[in-house]
Amino acid sequence: MTKNILTSFLLIFLISSNSIAQEKSTNQIKQLVESYKNDIRGPYYRIKWFCEDGSIRDAKDPCPDDLEGIQHASFKQSALDLRKTNRLFFGEILAATKTNEFLDANHNYSRLKQYQIGEYLASIDNGWVLRKGQYYRGAKQSEDEEAWGKSFFEDVLKNDNFLKTNFYLIRQALKDIPHNGDTNIGQLMRSESKILAEEIPSFMDIRIKIHGNPQKTDIDLVKNYIQKNNSKLSLQEKKDLKNLIVTMEQFYAPLDFNKIDKEVASLNGNTMVVEEIKNFSTYYKSNKSSKKIVENSASILANIRGNILDFKSSKDRLKLLDISKQLENILLIETQNWQTESLAETIRKIEVLTCASLGSGLIEFWEYDRIEKNFKSALDNQNITILELNNLLNTSRSIVEWSASLIKANYNEDVINYTNFEPMAYGFIDDRVRNSIALSLGETVSKLGNFVAKVSQINNKVMSIDNQSAIRGLNPGYAFGELVVVDGDPNVIEVNTNKIYIFQNPPSDLKPVAGIMTVSEGNLVSHVQLLARNLGIPNAALSNENLLALKKFNGKKVFYAVSNKGNVILKPESDMNNEEEKLFEKVERSKNMIEVPVADIRLDVSKVINMREVEATDSGKLCGPKAANLGELKQLFPKQVVEGLIIPFGVFKSHMNLPMPNENKTYWEYLNNAFQQADAKKKNGASEEMVEKFLLTSLKKLHTSILNIDLDKAFVQDLKTNFQSAFKNDMGNVPVFLRSDTNMEDLKEFTGAGLNLTLFNIKDEDKILQGIKRVWASAYTERSFKWRQKYLLNPENVYPSILIIPSVDVDYSGVMITKGINAGAEEDLTVAFSRGAGGAVDGQSAETRLITKKENFLLAPARQADYIRLPNYGGTKKYYTSFNNEILNEDNIDKIREFATQVRKKIGAKSGNKNQVYDVEFGFKDDKLWLFQIRPFVENKQAKSSEYLNSITPKISSSTKVSINEKI
Questions:
Q1: Which residues form the Pyruvate phosphate dikinase AMP/ATP-binding domain (predicted)?
Q2: Residue 87: what pLDDT?
Q3: Which one, 286, 587, 807, 898, has least CB within 10 Å?
Q4: Least reliable range by pLDDT among 212-221, 549-558, 893-902
């Protein structure tokens, strides 16, 4: 009996322990959040004494006289469990944490960032998880929180490397973590105005003004609103509006230079920085030129950042950063008062705000060095050509994008995590952008853009929204369909082939769509971008402000076009002219379809092949172009290409000829029968949607069956023998890549890039064998099927082969197109690189460069915080990076130029087409170049030569000159 009770007790304990250790689902977290909101103690349990010896005592039993202690709330068990299972920290009490645990460096500073997100949610949602708990007396002691904050900053600022690599993050933390009596007034002002607009709809216009174009005169707007609507407002509404006025007056209050002067006097470090701050203090007291104030404060911001390590005391560093924060606030106020009148002054303002972006951590020093000369060059001349003006505008737009994307790169992972269970968290990044120099910089660039559009005659016509100069075309084409505006995580959206999508950033595995626009374009040579270019899908970049303005058109039928010069049209169906309506009649009648060639396919070869035994002419016969081309590349570039094995089409086909379980037919017969039935349904009048649904259901079943197929024993043994021969070790001892390689890739008019599965760094023998089946099955996924359905007449004749190559744990990797894309000339190179393996191809925000014969131009820096490496034990390992150093060095760039020359020479000579453009995947390991793939670069010539697109492309001489002093 006792034994049974003990067994039952152990069972209950194990189940209980398992439930605690198991990660909570999104729904469970949502329920916890709601329960905390409605609990008078929120996530807290009871007030306790926490003594310096580690002991915890009840509220009425303080620490002994010989022990220091502090009093604050303890946490409910559910909140403590959530920390263990999901690494979620709600209702953080700073005084209760250790510096290193709160900084959370091993998890990319997630706990610190969560604290900031929590503070934001509390400000816009009446305390959030502390909705009632914020009134729980004694839960937090403000003096303890502030003392902890000061100690925290003085501790972390001792670390030179942390300050250098995470400058933006530490400045943002200063706004949220109490340490000198101040609070994040800017965030509070926006939060209070947002809440008021939700409660009083007629206040919305003032809220929009405060969010989008904040000025001191907004105080009068609120006061006048109260006076005008006094009889309609409740007592509480009047009280809330008056609180907003108090907050705004605090935000716009002049700096206390007496206090700043005292702090500066005690600083011990770089005398140039100290003197510059002193001079600014003197100037500011007697002068009110907004232009000069912005110029001087921007210079100080940059110099504080550049020289802060000269101040050895962490206390001095904290004082400097606090001064920097106050000066940034003054700059944000005064830049709204600096209204430019000429082209030269507008360019100067962009230059100054770019310097301020550097000083506030939004761009890095090496990035600033790349673009600073563009402004000086423009301002040194009396006249500027239309071409130079457009190039300057592109540079200016880029700085806005780099600034906004750095904010996103720092916080996006945690924001997306929170958004899953608290959708309001998504506004955090936008709030940070609005409280940064990026907002004013974007406004000034838009002003320049409007001027450039006027003199260049490149005008966007995108519905009726404001600030259209921020919109620019990336890829020509036209489309008609329902507009879908996605202001959130794009990866949770089920896309439709016939719709036009506007994303914050493109999903890495985008299924085919009619057209796309993105706030973050990813990079020019990602698989998504190349597929769009390949299929003539119109593709454009826009600002976050543009996306929000277009949300009201969500669900409307629209016409969308991007010209060859990059101007964009987006208009309602009702505004389409006859020519535009006829475009879609013509498309339906003359859709350009391709037949996958199968006449020369060799299905009789069912043995594993060494990659050295094939060349490019074997593509589509024995294997796909990846393996065939890499085999030839091994001959042409033996030192840059690894060894490899190929599982040819014939091995796949021999397995597809096996009986399919529960079907009375082979796998191959099942596949062909599915397409025959689909054709019959179509002939009998079934809609395209019904036919597609039938095929997707059939292919899903086939996909599942292939995953469970029994591999032929003779084939497995053949693979093991060849593995040992090629890689000089047994299967299971060498990590490898398994790359899908079908006969539908790299056709003359269709690239097929990235549609099927690549498996990274697999070492275990069983996982390699299962991986073979996974790669075969990937040809029948919904995404792969939908992309090829757009172009292929015989999609049932798609055969996958598999390329097996040993892993190279590259330091960084990427893609090169052997021409300029959207910038540069035919003989230039467009290169995009990310850290680690698999760089750039999946749409990461990569370091993108235009490399010419003698120079290289930064088109975009990397803004991907995480990356993967390939450890020798197999699988992948995630790392995080900062952005203070560029990825490609000068030696890499010289090797890229040299390698591109060899590619054009060797492959061009062999193919007989010296003008062919190539899409090259490669990487660097210890500065050695490793080549992974070369394929022809395919562009949609129909889109580029369309009569309609030519008709909407403006024609103006790029050499036309404009006076730099022209009114704007």
A1: 622-947
A2: 97
A3: 286
A4: 212-221
What is the CB-side half-sphere exposure of residue 663 using CA atoms within 13 A?
18
For residues 140 and 97, what is the distance between their CA atoms, to the nearest angstrom? 13
- Dump pLDDT digits (tens) for 900-934: 999 998 887 776 677 889 989 999 999 999 999 88
C-alpha closest to that of 857 among 402, 483, 367: 367
- Per DSSP, helices labelled H in 463-526 are none
Sign of CA dihedral 75, 77, 78, 83: positive
Task: Give the phi and the psi of residue 790 in degrees, each rounded to 5.
Answer: -65, -25
Contact 638, 683 (CB under 8 A): no
Res. 479 pLDDT band, cuts 50 70 90? very high
Give me the pLDDT at residue 9, please.
42
Q: Would you say how long the chain is, in residues?
A: 968
In single-letter form, the type of residue at position 74 comes to S
Hey, what are 322's tokens?
């606090």
Cβ–Cβ under 8 Å, residues 362 and 387: no
- E strand or H helix at 247, and its extent? helix 235-251
Say whether 609-940 and 462-589 share the same fold.
Answer: no
Q: What is the dihedral of CA 932, 935, 940, 944, to 10 degrees?
A: 90
**Pairs from 903-906 (Cβ < 8 Å, separation ≥ 24):** 903/818, 903/934, 904/818, 906/636, 906/637
Compute the distance between CA of residue 720 and CA of residue 732 in angstroms, rounded to an integer: 10
Residue type, position 716, single letter: V
Residue 810 Cα distances to 126, 530, 839, 846, 878, angstroms: 48, 23, 10, 16, 14
Domain ranges of the chain: 2-183, 252-339, 343-456, 462-589, 609-940
- Enter the tokens of residue 142: 């403000």
CA atoms within 13 A on the CB side of 641: 25
Phi-psi region of 42 (alpha: psi -120 to 50; beta: other; left: phi over 0): left
Answer yes or no: are the C-beta atoms of 962 and 386 closer than 8 Å.
yes
User: Does 2 have pLDDT greater than 60?
Assistant: no
| The 3-state secondary structure of 182-195, one letter per residue | CCCHHHHHHHHHHH
Those residues with Cβ within 8 angstroms of residue 679's Cβ, 6 or more apart along the chain or in another chain: none
949's tokens: 């697109």
- pLDDT given at position 522: 52
Q: What H or E segment, with its residue span, contains residue 167?
A: helix 167-176
**How far apart are the two ends of the chain, measured CA to CA in Å?**
92
Question: Mean pLDDT over residues 309-331, rounded?
Answer: 95
Mind giving me the DSSP string for 312-373?
--HHHHHHHHHHHHHHHHHHHHHHHH----BHHHHHHHHHHHHHHHHHTTSS-HHHHHHHHH
Residue ranges in 422-569 assigned as alpha helix (H): 427-434, 437-456, 527-535, 544-550
- CATH number belonging to domain 609-940: 3.30.1490.20
Nearest alpha carbon to residue 406 among 212, 211, 166 = 166
Q: Which fold has domain 462-589?
A: Glucose Oxidase; domain 1 (3.50.30)
Is it the case that residue 418 has pLDDT exceeding 80?
Answer: yes
The whole-angstrom separation of Cα 406 and Cα 865 is: 9
Question: Residue 189: CB partners within 8 Å, gap ≥ 6?
Answer: 210, 214, 244, 247, 248, 251
